[in-house]
Amino acid sequence: MFKRRVIFLLFAMLTLALGFSKAHADDIRLAYLQLTELEPDIYQVLWKVPARGQNERLSLSVMFDEQVKTLQEPVAGFIGNAHLQRWTMARTGGLTGTTIGFNGMASASMEVLLQIDTLDGATFIHRVTPDAPTYMVAAQPGLLQVVATYLVLGIEHILIGIDHLLFVLVLLMLVRSTRKLVLTITAFTIAHSITLSLAALNLIHVPVPPVEACIALSIVFVVTEVIHSKRGTPGLTEQRPWLVAFIFGLLHGLGFAAALGEIGLPQTAVPAALLFFNIGVEVGQLLFVGIVLSLWWALRHLSITVPLWVRMAPSYAIGSVASFWVFERVAGFWG
After folding, report:
1. Whole-prediction pTM value?
2. What H or E segment, with its residue span, contains residue 22?
3. How far is Cα 263 from Cα 204, in angstroms, rounded to an integer?
4. pLDDT tens column, 52-108
């Protein structure tokens, strides 16, 4: 059993180091440019950039080629954690062949999600990266682009979602058999898929700050169960980890939905975008579980003497970080 604890210690220290720098782990830090065709050759522009505090935004700007004419000056303001600008523009012949560029992507370490909605109901999604900060709009966008973009966004979200990964990690500390592992991962997947879908489709609405605080609290709860188990008093989570995974999975799904809400869904491809974001989350989750189990398998034959305090360290370290998140996030919406 000590080998298992060593693996969890190594992996926990890595994730905790990342965790301190990403207390709000549900944010996917993307700028967002939406171009909606109002009538032939006339477009409404929505330009959304993450904010820094209440009245400062990241230094990121969008540029169009000289054939694009501004019809209305931008109306700007801060809403939530973002700075929004709206204006209208025109380009004779449509946007096909238009060059769109972004200044400041490299310095801001920011990517841009570009969405174009046309009058005929087509939706175009493209992800612009600092390595290629300009893009020429192509003709006939396809559904495959939506699928690929939201699949990658789902994988990215779970892999940078330190709180979600820590919750899965502490659950794995209590799983004693392959059968329980399969049931636990399946239960968590089903649960977060339910609430993610309901919230993304606006069928339910729960304020994000309390959800984030409760997600941190879910980690504290399961860590407490791990500590009790090590002391010889197993609790509900060790006996029925799939039940706990399902209950808290409903909560974590709301966190996933909050991140997806920051990005938005293409209105003409909502089912595909939602489905593949969810699949991406699951792929990322399985990658994480696979890494943990692979480390366990690789080190199981090593003869290492590990002191008791070292074996207990991951649980207390994770619990400490999660407790800090609880107080920080509660203070955020009560203060």
Report:
1. 0.74
2. none
3. 18
4. 766 777 888 899 989 999 998 889 888 877 889 999 999 998 888 899 999 988 777
* Residue in the structure block whose two tokens are 């080190």: 299
Q: Number of helices (H) and strands (E) in the chain: give both, helices first.
A: 10, 10
For residue 129 the two structure tokens come to 């990266």
Domains of the chain, earliest start first: 2-26+161-334 (no CATH), 30-142 (2.60.40)
d(CA 210, CA 216): 10
What secondary structure letter does DSSP report for 202?
A: T
pLDDT in tens, 251-262: 999 988 888 877
Q: What angle do CA 85, 91, 97 make, to 5 degrees?
A: 105
Name every residue whose Cβ is closer than 8 Å to that of residue 157 and which is 6 or more positions away in sequence.
26, 28, 256, 259, 260, 277, 280, 281, 284
Give Cα separations from 259 to 51, 198, 236, 277, 304 (angstroms): 15, 14, 30, 11, 41
DSSP 8-state code for residue 5: H
Q: Please, which residues have CB within 8 angstroms of residue 330's CB and are 6 or more apart in sequence?
A: 213
